[in-house]
Here is the input.
Amino acid sequence: MELIWQGILQACKLLLARDPEMMRITILTLKVSGTATLISLCLGIPSGVVLALTRFPGRKFIISLVNTGMGLPPVVVGLWVSILLWRYGPLGFFHLMYTPTAMIIAQSVIAAPIITGISIAAFQQVDGKLRLQIMALGASKWQTVMLLMKEIRLPLLAAVMAGFGGVISEVGASMMVGGNVLGRTRVLTTATVLEVSKGNFDVAIALSIILMVLAYGVTLGLTILQQRGKRI
Here is the structure.
């Protein structure tokens, strides 16, 4: 119990003192996970629209792959992204290994299936008659999609929260492709693992508290946006 209190006090001390290294790690965490979520959103929702609203050969097989990807282990993603970005890998000439960009790529691969899968389910839950009614009123395909997105905005925002939660909390892929380099690729999750390995449990608890506060703050903002104007 004393160790926990020490961690809480350490977290308060780091936050109040605005420790430069802690601020750098926190900002990088938000930057990497936020960018990865945004990229996944740009990829996931259009993919969800296509897979949910169109019919073509192999569609069910692709959806099954997306659903499998929703539970894709981060270490597997880290392994394959590392192979691609390694010095002698297919994309090694970009020299992205052990950079924040490599972490963003890995986290995007993790979050994209989550957002895509939830988007597919959300679009498929819309009454087919509503879509036909919108089209009967003369709406274009683009207008139809936008109106349907407005109709399912609550589950779509839930998809964003799930995607962000999946990447800000992962450590395996970030450690493998980022290398946990001080001042360059160290984020809150990898820093926590490092402090635990060194036996600095009070600092690790402090980092975990800061991570939870950061995750809660972002999720709270998205929840307020999601529930705005919603009456139960």
